[in-house]
Amino acid sequence: MSVLLTRAAELLVLPPAVNLLLAILGLALLRKKKRLGIALLALSLTTLYLFSIPATALWLMDSLQKDYPALTAADLQHPKAQAIVVLGAGRNYGAPEYGRDTASKFGLERLRYGAHLHRLTNLPILVTGGAPHGETSAEARIMKDVLVNDFRVAVKWVEDKSLTTFENARYSRPFLEQAHIRRVYLVTHAWHMPRSVLAFERAGIAVIPAPTGFVTPWPIERGAFAWLPSAHALQTSYHALHEIGGWMWYKLREPQIREAQTWFMMAKEYLDLAERHISTIKHA
Questions:
Q1: Peptide bond into 16 cis (omega under 30)
Q2: Where does 122-190 have alpha helices with state H?
Q3: How many beta carbons lie within 10 A of that of residue 166, not counting itself?
Q4: How is the chain split into domains, by residue range?
Q5: Are 102 and 91 in contact (CB under 8 A)?
Q6: CATH number of 69-214
Q7: Sign of the alpha-carbon dihedral angle for 201, 205, 209, 210
Q8: Can you tell me the distance from the alpha carbon of 245 to that of 238, in angstroms, rounded to the nearest whole number?
Q9: Distance between CA atoms of 60 and 233, rounded to whole angstroms?
Q10: C-alpha dihedral, 267 to 270 to 276 to 281, nearest 10°
Q11: Which of 40, 106, 140, 158 is most buried, by the most CB atoms less than 10 A from its CB?
């Protein structure tokens, strides 16, 4: 339920829902507080226009993508990581042509690039993603099925409990530690990379960003067309604002995350000590 409430809150504070709410509030205030009502209506329409034009959408996306350039063939000639981690990106529910849930279009972009990296480096793959809405199959299981059956690429580890990007990192760590993996290629969309890198670094996992799915302007989004509103630009702005908000939320949670990591490490050390003690008693 908490995941559903979070998603609902996200929808309400992002365009176009937030613009509609501002407009409704403005209309409601027109009689008693005309100036405020008009101001809210103007704010609603102005921000809706700004978020709906390619100029704004591409600027927002560039702010997320610019620090994470694509890996080159030279970068991959001598791999500096020991594994590839592919983050889930939702699912296509009840796809009629397959008769079941399958990977979303964003998920397919990540899986395709993960398979590409595997073929270039021969490194093992970890897929991560759970069932945030109580689905019968975890997202990571769907991802494995696509990689194995569609891309003919083996999957070494399946992390199927995580519900968020932060949990992707947290729950992937034990698999990597057990295999003595020190650094991974982190595969996700370029615009999702800032939040993902932050989450994995806070979980104590060294990463080499391996971005895919860069947002670049379409021919009809250049020049004067960059100022014409479109549904595609609005969707792009939505994704960008969602990621910026998510990154800010993770930064605000850093003190709590560090405290949780401290308790996690203490618990791990205690369990390791107890395991050694039990082993000593058995061999006594």
A1: yes
A2: 139-149, 165-178
A3: 22
A4: 2-51, 69-214
A5: yes
A6: 3.40.50.620
A7: negative
A8: 11
A9: 11
A10: -130
A11: 140
Run of H or E including 28: helix 17-29
**100 membership: H or E segment, kind and range:** strand 100-103
| The model's pTM | 0.85
Long-range contact list for 278-284, CB < 8 A, 24+ apart? none
Q: Using N-to-C axis directions, what is the helix angle for 231-252 and 2-13, rounded to 10°?
A: 120
Residue 255: per-residue pLDDT: 60
Closest by CA to 190, choosing from 87, 281, 119, is 87
For residues 146-173, give the mean pLDDT.
97
Residue with tokens 């981690």: 85
Q: What Rg value do the Cα atoms of the chain yield, rounded? A: 22
| Mean pLDDT value across the chain | 91
Give the Cα separation of 66 and 240 in Å (integer): 13
d(CA 68, CA 61) in angstroms, rounded, equals 12
Contact 139, 167 (CB under 8 A): no
Task: Indicate the range of 71-85, 99-113, 228-242, 247-261 predicted with least confidence.
Answer: 247-261
CA dihedral sign, ordered 58, 59, 63, 68: positive
DSSP-derived pairing of the beta strands 125-128 and 83-87: parallel
Q: Is the dihedral of CA 38, 40, 46, 52 positive or negative?
A: negative
Q: Strand 91-95 relative to strand 100-103: parallel, antiparallel, unpaired?
A: antiparallel
Q: Are 91 and 144 in contact (CB under 8 A)?
A: no
Query: Which phi and psi (to 5°) does residue 130 adopt?
Result: -105, -145
* Chain-centre distance for alpha carbon 1: 20
